[in-house]
Amino acid sequence: MTMAAHSPDLDEGEARAGFLARHELPVSLVAGGILLALILAAVVLAPALAPADPNAVDLKVIRRPPSAEHLFGTDAIGRDLFSRVLYGGQVSLLVAGAGMIGSLTFGAVMGMLRAFGPWFLRPVVDRMIDIQLAFPYVLLAIAITSAVKPSVPVLILLMVLAGWAGVARVVRAIALQERAKDYVKAAEILGASGLRISLFHVFPGVLPGLMVLAAMQTAAMIVFEATLSFLGMGIQPPTASWGGIMLEGKDYITSSWWLTTFPGLAILMTSLSLVLIGDGMEARSERLRAKETEA
Amino acid sequence: MTAMRQALLDVAELSVAFPGRNGPIRAVDGVSFRLEPGESLVIAGESGSGKSMLCRALMNIQPGAASVTATRMDWQGRALGALSPRDWRALRGGQMAMIFQDPAAALNPLLSVGRQIMDVVNAHRACSRAQARSRAIEVLGLAGLPEPEARLASYPSQLSGGMRQRVAIALALAAAPKLIIADEATTNLDVSIQAQIVALLKRLQRELGLGLIFVTHDLDLAAEVGGRLMVMYAGQPVETGPVQTVLKDPCHPYTRGLLRSAPTLHSSRETPLQPIPGQTPKPGAVGAGAPFRSRCPVSVEGVCDVRRAPWSEAGPGHRVACNRFALDGRGGLP
Amino acid sequence: MSKPMIEACGIDKTFTLRRDGRLVEHRALKTVSADLHEGEILGIVGESGSGKTTLSRIMIGIDTASKGEILFHGDRVATRREWRDLRRHVQYVFQDPFTALCPTMRIGKALAEPLAIHGIGSREERPARVARMLEMVGLHPDMAGRLPSQLSGGQRQRVNLARALMSEPKVLICDEIVSGLDVSVQAQVLALLLDLQKRLGLSLIFISHDLRVIRYLCDRVLVMYLGEIVEQGRTDEVFAAPKHDYTRRLLAAIPDRDRPAHHSPIDEALK
Lengths: 295, 334, 271
What we know:
CATH class of chain C: Alpha Beta
Structural class of chain C: alpha/beta
CATH architecture of chain C: 3-Layer(aba) Sandwich
Distance between the termini of chain C: 48 Å
Oligomer: heterotrimer
Number of domains of chain C: 1
Low-confidence stretches of chain C: none
Strand content of chain C: 25-35%
CATH architecture of chain A: Orthogonal Bundle
Helix content of chain C: 25-40%
Order of helices and strands of chain A: HHHHHHHHHHHH
Low-confidence stretches of chain A: 1-16
């Protein structure tokens, strides 16, 4: 058979391959994306979807189990739990999302600075990372929240503090590895400054890894925010994030399971979707790399 | 003709194929040769010629996805295809051994040189610790390491590149093999070390009556090794014969192109090198035609596109697979 | 003879290594001096550990000398600014075509970068300059849209050459640039290098361990051994009548198809 006879087969094969395969989309990425999109839509559209005011007290329906009227049941002072979980997601996702962006940005800048910045900053960055990683951040959170009243900006700051060092360490490792390669030296010889090399040469190579990290980081942030709120260091009542709602339900965990189960499920599903996305992105960049080399 | 001795390795129409999107991709296609004890076969080719994959197939260490087919593949008259994994383990390292391009990859960095060699000795014959130790000293000496006894305790990281390659050779010799396959074994070494290693392999071949398969990209080095030469291109053998004959009277356009593009100690800018235009085809892109046709100045229209050349006799023991040669003989070559 | 383009004077380089837990001083270059004249091709040949790459790196300032100085057009290069100026006129091409290009940067952008750094030409005319340079090194201008991973080794080395030439340097230092290439491709790159040298009036420093390539390409050759220059002179003279014992040994170790059978030093060594 000649090559020409092969190509119609190829086109047919390509056409028959599913949409996912053609765009090199791993199943985990798609599944995680759909799940996250659903959660985000529900949280953003909370005002339209929520059957009741999340903070409206109704003492006639205290701690009712899930029913048609109250989808997730009601809490100790008769608030509709479904509405509270929807609105609570706004706080949780806002804090986690902003915390992720903040810690990623700060961490990446510090990591690149460590590899390409002026020499006197390098040990400073190293020690900062060490201290941050060695310091138990729940303790740090307690210290900060006892000094200032927790609010959304304070919580976001806490998230950044908790997350940046891990990011900086990853970026530092990749950047140092790249710095030893010839293309960085080649750019130096061409006269490129450290800033130019780190921005245009090394950073684009760090980016895919950073995207994967971003997904995982958000998942960790959601759990961390929930932990803080559960420990009473979160947004103050009556507004509640998912962790805060769980805190309120903690005392009734043996008698009213729904008070902790539903916000817990929300946290679980959200982190799961993000982890799936992270895995999927990693698999995708690997496949694309293989495909590119093949071409 | 003298009575045929039993060949160490007798291979006919050996192919190695990988599954590809449009059918199998042949990394090695139709290789045949016969190697007798004490003989050497030099396999020369550029990257993508399939020479390394051929070696791996001979040792049965090809990647898992590869499928090896051959009409004949006999080791001392015994069909290799019928061997069990257990038999293969005994044969590999015991009867046939391989030396790789990167000695660091062939040696375990965490074990001493002596320990690694003694392990090989013990794996292939029952002997005492003392016997294994004396054998290790013996092969290190054979491989030309000074003070072999002192070397037993060395770790690979404590040795220079050339010394490491000698240890790799000692390791290959440990079980007294009948065949050594050297896959670009001198490529990463300095020229003076390369000369020493080649001299060592030739001496061992002569003194121990070993068969040697020497893979290289350097035709000048092929001349120094001697024996028979097989030139490969894009997975296919294109010319084969005694090394000196092939290099003095190359009859395939690729062999000629390769020789004209490689500088020698006598070349200068007054007689410019003549590069082969274009680049090696990607695996699987050769199809049914002659492999070199896309870069060949004398390809035969309507023939080279559709069929591979049959083997033609160019001299005693000198064969060439070229449609142009089959048609016009030497006169048609560039 | 004209004034040298670039000159290395009394260069010493000492590395501190850790060997078996102790710090050991290793002298990689022992008071080496070398110069490059306008329009010439200077070969530096030696085996691993000879210091040939270290010398070339010091000449462009990627490594710093422990002692000695670099002169460019007779002027001492010392300050950051002076090194920056030097690097506009002296460029370097690396050995490994697979690591010398940024993996995420498209070829066109990589080639335009030297122009942006040195502020050469306007932003609008850069793509045309890139296309012209790609054609000059024998690549199709469409290559500008590709990533390095989509090119073969030979193509990448052409891109590396093109990139080094974008700032229109006068001197090009090539560190083993054909060593990783197949013989047929190596000949293509050597032909290109000679062509560029003639057309652009470049002065070349060509570093290689392969005496055959040096013999073919270079006007003058420095033979280095363990951090010293043991022999130098016109290539044909050094090859015809090597004076230093090391050069003789090196020449004898080069495999040669034209050597009468069984007269090679390899066979001599067997006796």
